[in-house]
Amino acid sequence: MQVAKVRGTVVSTQKDPSLRGVKLLLLQLVDEDGNVLQKYEVAADTVGAGVDEWVLVSRGSAARQIQGNEQRPLDAAVVAIIDTIHVEDRLIYSKKDQY
Question: How many other C-beta atoms can be found within 10 angstroms of the C-beta atom of residue 33?
């Protein structure tokens, strides 16, 4: 899994029929120090994440292990909204401090 920040949504009117009704998010990846990287990814949202929230994104076949995604052509899915990240007694991110 990778930590990412939700930057926006992706809308597509023409897509595989199995993706109808799936919310797609534009994510910016985050490194272990909490710095946003200049690397972006599109992922299906399975948890109702919103813009500026930090999330966990699962990739590859693990993204299709989520109930309902088994037959969808996904290689990335948001599987959690992050509340806090601590690394070696340092607070890297806190959702409550964001607002």
Answer: 8
First to last CA, the chain: 25
User: Residue range 4-32: average pLDDT?
Assistant: 91
CATH number, domain 2-98 = 2.40.50.220
pTM here?
Answer: 0.85
d(CA 44, CA 19): 9
Q: Which residues pair with 27 in a beta bridge?
A: 6, 41
Quick one: which of 56, 59, 53, 64 has its CA closest to 95? Answer: 53
pLDDT in tens, 46-65: 899 999 999 999 886 555 45
